[in-house]
């Protein structure tokens, strides 16, 4: 089978391409510039790439730019979306437009193609948990599942524009799929960690780095879900291959409070500059994610601690961390 992956050079996109090639797929990777060796070099070295990977230029913001890339493919994995580490100067142009209009354009090209059977979209837990009372100190039994949706107004009010971008992009995708009869399955990963294939540092890897390199001085009152990048890629392919897959799927192996993250890291890497000061005396948030839905599809997860260790290993190898 032949499939297309947008954002093929990214942290998650690269793992999807790697596993697809390992499974024998022909892969069309859509990237901003196929000639940019610094960004795509690692893809060209993947086993099977020479024989079965073709890179193509795809401009998310240009309507129709993916029409020819999707013509003849059986499925589309849409992973491309900005994942900024700080608020970009122009939120609309740099973040919301590529996420939302980009998704609309990708889905429109996919629905024009006569061969695409299913689109798998990479959304996020940011489209699930960004609302006022998702995590709370009071309700210890709260289990967050796929029925939860982030609140766009709340996202705007706390200037969480990335969460806004993912929420609106996913909503746009569902509206489009319903109106056009497109077979869409959505992945909602939590914080994704593991071996980094690209040569650049991505946002989720940077979160763990922040706890180790001294740049984070206080432990925030926040919850994390963790999932191994290889499992995220595997789940995307599961979602494409299993006809019974439908709707959204939370991808998360374990839920931890930032305090637990700091404690775990201190045990694993006592020599690093792990923050030990809790940000305030607010009661700790509690709650858990449920990934039961994807588990029912047959998905098994790697323990989060392995994902963290492999993330740190990559950071050391790349020279991003020296403790
Ligand atoms: P990366 O930053 O590594 O990858 C993002 C990809 O999107 C890159 O290929 C990037 O291309 C592409 N992209 C971004 N903006 C544009 C644009 N304007 N035009 C064309 N391409 C663009 O991040 P991840 O791999 O982590 O993210 C991939 C997807 O997974 C995103 O949709 C993200 O929201 C989602 N996700 C990630 C999580 C995580 O913890 N990492 C958690 C949950 C969801 P280029 O390199 O050229 O900029």
Automatic annotation (TrEMBL):
Cross-referenced Gene3D superfamilies: NAD(P)-binding Rossmann-like Domain
Alphabetized InterPro entries for the sequence: Epimerase_deHydtase, NAD(P)-bd_dom_sf, NAD(P)_dehydrat-like
Domain NAD-dependent epimerase/dehydratase, chain residue ranges per copy: 3-246
Pfam families xref list: Epimerase
Keyword line: Oxidoreductase
UniProt GO MF annotations: oxidoreductase activity
Taxonomic superkingdom: Eukaryota
CDD domains (UniProt xref): FR_SDR_e
Protein name: NAD-dependent epimerase/dehydratase domain-containing protein
The organism of origin for this protein: Riccia sorocarpa
């Amino acid at each position: 089978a032949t499939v297309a992956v947008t954002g093929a050079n990214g942290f998650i996109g690269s793992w999807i391409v790697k596993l697809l090639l390992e499974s024998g797929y022909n892969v069309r990777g859509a990237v901003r510039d196929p000639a940019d060796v610094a960004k795509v070099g690692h893809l060209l070295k993947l086993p099977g790439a020479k024989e079965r990977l073709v890179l193509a230029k795809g401009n998310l913001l240009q309507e129709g730019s993916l029409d020819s890339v999707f013509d003849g493919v059986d499925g589309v994995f849409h992973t491309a979306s900005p994942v900024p580490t700080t608020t970009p100067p122009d939120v609309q142009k740099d973040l919301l437009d590529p996420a939302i209009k980009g998704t609309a354009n990708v889905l429109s090209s996919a629905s024009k193609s006569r061969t695409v059977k299913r689109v798998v979209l990479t959304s996020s837990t940011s489209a699930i948990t960004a609302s006022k009372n998702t995590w709370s100190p009071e309700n210890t039994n709260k289990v967050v599942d796929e029925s939860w949706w982030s609140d766009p107004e709340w996202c705007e009010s706390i200037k969480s524009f990335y969460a806004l971008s993912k929420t609106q992009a996913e909503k746009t995708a569902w509206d489009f799929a319903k109106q056009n009869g497109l077979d869409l399955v959505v992945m909602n990963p939590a914080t994704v960690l593991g071996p980094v294939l690209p040569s650049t540092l991505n946002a989720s890897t940077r979160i763990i780095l922040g706890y180790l390199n001294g740049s984070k001085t206080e432990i925030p009152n926040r919850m994390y879900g963790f999932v191994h990048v290889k499992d995220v890629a595997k789940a995307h392919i599961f979602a494409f291959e299993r006809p019974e897959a439908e709707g959204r799927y939370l991808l998360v192996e374990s839920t931890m409070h930032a305090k637990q993250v700091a404690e775990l890291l201190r045990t694993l890497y006592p020599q690093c500059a792990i923050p030990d000061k809790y940000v305030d005396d607010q009661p700790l948030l509690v709650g858990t994610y449920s990934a039961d839905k994807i588990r029912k599809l047959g998905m098994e997860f790697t323990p989060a601690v392995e994902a963290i260790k492999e993330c740190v290993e990559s950071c050391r190898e790349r020279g991003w961390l020296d403790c």
